[in-house]
Predict the structure.
Amino acid sequence: MNDLKLLICFICLSSFFVSCQDEDFLDRYPLDQVTDAVFFTQPSDMKIYLNQFYNRSIFPHQYYHRGDIGSDIHISDRTMDQRLEGTMTINSGPALSFGNVRAVNYFFDNYKKCEADFEEYQQYVGEAHFFRAFFYYQLLRNFGDVQWVAKQLQTNSPELYGPRDARNVVADQIIADLDSAAMYMTAEKTSGYSRLNKWIALLFQSRVALYEGTWEKYHAGSDFGVASAQPDKYLNKAAEAASQVMNSGLYDIYSTGSPATDYVDLFGLRDYTNNQEVMFWNKMDLDLNVSAKRKLDYLAYPWSFGITRSLADAYLCTDGKPIQVSPLFQGYNTIADEAKNRDPRFYQTIFTPDVPWKITDGDTVLWNEVYETKLFVNIDYTTPTGFQRRKHYNPHTEFHDLNFEETPSIQFRYAEVLLNYVEAKAELGSITQEDIDQTIKKLRDRVGMPNLILADIIADPRWEFPELSPIINEVRRERKIELALEELRFQDIARWAAADELIIGKKPLGAKKDQFNIVPAYAVDENGFLDPLGGALPQGWQFNPNRDYLYPIKENELVLNPNLGQNPGW
């Protein structure tokens, strides 16, 4: 009984969004100590147990080093990304770890001890299904084929030494778990920060199904392909799951009618309890010793991170036309020029000189002060591309702190539901103008941009995927812009098998070098754009498309279980 009391105290201390200092925390958790027959006999036991998964290692807050680093739209020159560079070794990737899965399976092996009616604890069973799906989706993205395990294994379990299951088998199990999660969890909108709900499970299901459907479609015929692939099955499931959320009427796009600020303001709000767009978020509370540390204080400075030209050039002009064909585009001479007559999400994602940088006691300092006098003066003020991230930042300094901020972070938002739906419909070839009006139009309305008209798509001479249809190109553009810096970009590149178009041989360029008062110590390309990694990558990124879409199985894992086999190219 003493062991049980210690366990409960430990789990309570690690409850909702408490910071986890060790990434291997859940792997090290002494689950084998939960042996008292009393535990799991009450719904409250289940809640306490599942609280361990509501932490910041699983739902991290947006920090200066997060936001699609390791993709084509956001880089750092502090360290090279080995995956993009093509220099990863067999032992430098993540471990094939099932610690989190084992922790959830322990729940499934024990929850039926509960003496209460199922209706009293079905929420927690639903949460367990969600978390198992969540952890398996990470394994699927990292390694492809993995062993599907639905029970807690022991040291002598034969499954420990078995082969991996095919990725589509695992995807089916993930989707089934999310069906169960949606069935059991509450259909109420809830506060969005305490417990998961049905609609979050369906959003996540649309993400998983879209990932697998497009992976099977675009990797067909390669070493990463799936035998007897059924991409349409998953694409239909993605559209179905997203449509359920859309039809619930519980969520909408956040807008106050201010297209010049609504998008950036969404990511700087202090509370999302009643927000119509945010479905799940991190709530900080200093009274409970739960903080975002120095999130805003970090985001106030470049710190050698920078948004790339790839993202900057993706924004349309305010006439709805690409910059290559619109007469409204004002050229590249300065960042301020680039932002003129552009989709307002440009200057709400990237700092431009005339926007607030710091607001203290009603006094506003504009980004001009940094742009004109501080940018590139030292490492704090250096961005390798000249483009400094504005998204997720709040300029009000009363919310900044060197150690203890209560700055929340969004985990899931309704905009992704809309984009998952419209992409699935486009990939299925069944998209209609009504589909666009229900999705992309809502996102563009928020920022005052013209709608996308299916029958009148304007050709872009620089479409990233010229061999694909105009509608798929524009749906992917919308996703790139709307979800920028939300940790989804490389997932998109991988599932589209798009390294050939977006990564291989490409250099992450920046703004025009000669616009800055303090000359940055970076090379330029033939057009005068900053080329911060040009010296290290003279031929651009050398991502290996026959290998790097999946991480390798480490040597020690193969020694322990030779039946795992190795991923392609390794």
Observations:
- Strands lie at 74-76, 278-282, 305-307, 356-360, 363-366, 409-413.
- The first helix runs from residue 2 to 13.
- The radius of gyration is 24 Å.
- Confidence is low (pLDDT under 50) at residues 1-32.
